[in-house]
Structures are given as C-alpha cells and as structure tokens.
Amino acid sequence: MDFDRIRTFVKSYIREDDSDLSKLYDDAVRRGVPVIREDTADYLKVLLAGLKPERILEVGTAVGYSSLFMAGYLGGTTFIDTIELDTDMADEAEMNFRRFKRDDVITLHRGDASEILEDMAEQGGRSYDLVFIDAAKSQYKVYLSQAMRMVHPGSVIVTDNILESGLVLESHFLVEKRDRTIHDKLREYIYLIKNDERLETAILSVGDGIAVSVVKENV
Predict the structure, then answer these.
(1) Residue 179's pLDDT band (boundaries 50, 70, 90)?
(2) Which of 11, 94, 109, 208 could form a disulfide with 161 if both were Cys (CB 3.0 to 4.6 A apart)?
(3) Is this prediction's pTM over 0.85?
(4) Within a 10 A sphere around the Cβ of 80, how many other Cβ atoms?
C-alpha cells in the first residue's frame, strides 16, 4: 500500500487557511524552521476538541506556531507553558505571542528543557491536561520522565516526529552512523511508552509520526 499517496490524498482535504497564522506557518516552512506538519495540526484539532485542555505544557517552542495554533483553536481560554532553548527562536516566539495578542495565556520559559522541567516538577509544577513534546529527540525519555510528575489521570501526552521520516524502521546497522544515536533513542522511547504500565499509547503515522499516550487512572 502506498502510504505517501494516501497521505497526499488526505492532506488534499485539509481546509485552506489564509489567516495571519497560516502566513506565519508558511514563512516558518520557507525558512526551514521546525513546525508541526499540516496533518499533525489537523489531528491536534480533533484531540483538542475532545480533550478541551485547560493547561498545556509544550516542550519545544520554535517561533511559537504550535502554541499559537492551540491557543487560537481553544479560543484563548487555555494556559500554555512552552519551553525553548534557542535564544533567537525564543525572541521571535515572544514577538509573535504579542503580535497575536496571546501573551496573556502563553508563557515562554527560556533555557534547557530538561532543567526547566526538573525545576517545575520540584516546585510542585502545574497539573497539565495535555503535554506536547516536540524538541530534541535524544532527550524524549528525559522529558517524559519529568512530565509524568506534572500530569493526572486522563492527561494526554503527544510526542511528535516519532518516526523520523521512517528512520526508526531500519536496522541500526543500515542507518548512517551520524543518525544512529537518534535512531536508537527513538526506538528506546517507543519501547518505553508502549510498555509503561501508567500509559496507554498508540503510534500514529500522522505527519512524521506521533505517539499519543493517555495517563491511566493508576498513575
């Protein structure tokens, strides 16, 4: 079965959007800024509509598109904490939050996500309804471990780019040496979330692959 053709067919039905946020997205793609893919955003709409999260934790802000997308879709009634290491990206994201008048509901935390998450958890961090992980893939296990200290039964954890353009399907020795660390870390992460008894997880071939994990009652 030709999944690329299927994905192209499905994407052809995504409604076109000529809003300023869509223009921000197009500009980010043109510049090679990492932003969620169109079909990932389409899936997130469904998830957000059902979950109606009041608090969201995002690991990996980039220029702020996904935070703005979620805040806009939810009507600005949701509070979002988002973390970004890159100074230039963080500066641009904060500018965009002000530009779209979402800086009252989106809080940007600057610095290394693993350190910030650790501090937030130790300080009795907020209980998040949705966690969106889209940052350094080699650190996914660390982010998950810390995020699990700030969720509750029924929380949903979404991890983006879990299939790395199909890289994880290949044998370790068939992958270019420069990519083996990411390959192995992603496989370890997939094994972890599929076998963690606190989570119910599905791996979906949406965008570049996403893992959707629901925190069970016995967390």
Answers:
(1) low
(2) 208
(3) yes
(4) 26
